[in-house]
Amino acid sequence: KDLFVICQELNLPYALGREAAILWRHHIPDVTGDVLTTGRMPIKSFEDLQGKELSKEETSTGMSTAEPDVTGKKDYIDFHDFVQWFFTNGFRDDLNIFEESDEQRYLKKVSKKHDVCLVDVESCNDKFKEADTNCDGVIDYEEFKAVIQAKIGLPNGNTLPHSRVHTLWRDADTDGNGRLDFEEFMAFWMKSFQGDCPISGFYRNFRRISTVSDL
Fold first, then answer.
1. Exposure string for 7-30, b = 16+ CB within 10 A, e = fewer
2. What pLDDT is stored for residue 97 in this prediction?
């Protein structure tokens, strides 16, 4: 069964299902057919993965809506059980289920701290690295100006006025220390350039009007 379909059935984010599937395939031996459908993880292996003994509730009917006829404690879990457990426990600090870099652990903490999807945090981190051209771990004003101009993308070589860029900078630099750390950058980027964004929306209209007036 396709992972996307499984996530739809369980009403879980696909990005989280993808992470769970990677971990599942790493720990489940080769089986005939689709490992997400036919694979089974012995409870002992699951306990070892968690680093603690599995509670009865986590292997009972309440854990898996995909298997309503299961009663009591099972000697295995299937992928439906696993992905739902992963949804609840995958970001717990006391569970070391991935071989993670320091950076990945930091991004997971940021995700939890600000209640932001990890996929969005990772996307912002990619943009932060692109903007940090001197690789010093922070964004200075010149780097900020460059990424804003590139993001807005005004036509015919036009650029934002200095006063406007400076206003955006003051909005982003919340502690006023003259540089943006990752969390400041992420907060500004998500507020300004995701969803119903007043900044990108305004300049998107500006680009359209400018293009039409040039005809």
1. beebebeeebbebbbebbeeebee
2. 55
Is the Cβ–Cβ distance between 20 and 56 less than 8 Å? no
Looking at residues 109-113, what average pLDDT do you find?
A: 88
Containing H/E element for 76?
A: strand 76-77
Taking Cα atoms as reference points, which of 157, 149, 145, 153 lies closest to residue 206?
A: 153
The pLDDT of residue 176 is above 90: yes
134's tokens = 């001197």
Assign 130 a pLDDT band (cuts: 50, 70, 90): very high
Euclidean distance between CA atoms 150 and 165, whole angstroms: 12
The closest of 91, 79, 66 to 26, measured between CA atoms, is: 79
**Centroid of chain to Cα 180:** 21
Residue 202 has a CB neighbour count (10 Å cut-off) of: 11
Q: At 94, list the tokens.
A: 């006391």
Instruction: Determine the pLDDT at residue 32.
Output: 61
At 37, list the tokens.
Answer: 């459908």
